[in-house]
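Project standup — Tuesday

K.O.: blocked on the structure for the chain from last sprint. Re-posting the sequence here as requested.
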Amino acid sequence: MGRWAVAEYADGSVRLCPLDERGRAAGPVVTRPSLDEAVRSHPEVARWVWRATGAVYPRALRSGVRVARCYDVEAAEALLLGHEGRYGEPRSLSAAWARLRGLPVPEDPPLSAPASAQPSLFEAGPVPLPADADPLQALMEVYAGQLARTDAAEHPGRLRLLLAAESAGMLVAAEMRRAGLPWRADIHRGLLAELLGERYPGGGEPRRLAELAERISRAFGEGVTVRPDLPADIIRAFSRAGIRLSSTRSWELGAVEHPAVAPLLEYKKLYRIYTAHGWSWLREWVRDGRFRTEYLPGGTPTGRWTSNGGGALQIPRVMRRAVVADPGWRLVVADAAQLEPRVLAAISRDRGLMAAAGGEGDLYTALALRGFSGDRAHAKLALLGAIYGQTSGDGLKHLADLRRRFPDAVAYVDEAARAGEEGRLVRTWLGRTCPPAGGDGGEEDVEPGGRAVDEEEPGPVPGPRGTPSARARGRFTRNFVVQGSAAEWALLMLAALRRRLTGMRAELVFFQHDEVIVHCPEGEATAVAEAVPAAGEEAGRAAFGPTPVRFPLTPAVVECYADAK
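H.V.: unblocked you, prediction finished:
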């Protein structure tokens, strides 16, 4: 049988029901004592329809039960709301059901960053349905409504694929949290000692940071004390030295000639490691040789993932040395080469750019052979300038050459930028929709509850076309159509790779943007290394249809993550 709806009840039991192609009941309701028992007793089910994967699936995983496919109603609701121009409205099952019934819509609970890898007894539960609402019936009503809304979309086939891909990503996220990333605490402690030196009693900064702080203070004069961990203190110190700074971002400091700059840049780099991945992080986040966090598919407006706690997507390069496979196992690490330019070729259908992206070699070199006087650097600057909205300098000069040679590619992102400036909704290839004008139109580099030494300022709220805020939204939507479509490719790649790993002991253990890590027995490493690039090509065909564009994923089989680069 195809798909079954399954809902949990207050007594811990679940009720399930087969569904037809329109989401209506296609058989009797069945009761089972738990989700894992329901899955075990119905192996014929191809897709489970449930409220939210993150809330339902982990309990099944703890019982050793996995499902092949699911439909996550709350993830789908968020995507459909965005598609309808209602980005950010409550997405819970209870909210969706209330909208169907014309009832007051409850707010979603806030996302709270966990303090450690250990589960909390006080985590917020699901938004409750009204007391007289049956959970299974509410689930089926919402699901049927979502199918109808999807059918009404401009490109329903693409939107269905996006909903399926997002749900597959939810399964991968839950399974990666369960598996955990292999992490050697002893190596981590050795790295901290090497980089930061010994810790002083009483919880003060480690020796290396204390020495750098002293050097920074001395650089501003005898008797001067500067707190390098406080940006305002640094700005005041430079101001007293006659140097005006708008921030303490590294790129701005790097343009300043002053003896404090070099130790300050070193301090910032080490301080970030100390606060984000230091001894406290190791104690809180690594258990039994594994680092586990909560991955959040679709955590940004473009669909890129974020993580809730632990800084999983911000692991410093030096700390990769602590990511080591278990004895007799290997890490298969792969990332997609020049993913976003290749995606632009596929979604714009620009013949010239598709031809350049039709090989597995360096895309920018292929572009340079078609223009730019054979200069790879100029070709790269032009293409990235088109994607990211470079409006001045060399990027603008080379963009004119790009426009002549690849007119459809440039026109595609130009139209996305124009639509953004005008306040229109802009969609990725499969249909993820940008926030409306005045909404959250920026990417978050800091995860919920996180903290960064260099905090970016909030972006402007879009205004009338031609204003700085409208142009800022145009730059966002220009990149949104490419980065968001790339995120869709990545979801489909994960789904394809997960399916190809079925029957192996290999586990997906890490993913960020365009990079994936599989932990597997040494004897499976060759098969996994073959599965990874095959999944990438399958994702390209599924997302964008038949095009000559290649999406190479180059795997490296290593014992240590750091050796893959």
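K.O.: great, moving the ticket to review. The longest helix spans residues 468-500. The chain is about 45% helix and 10% strand.
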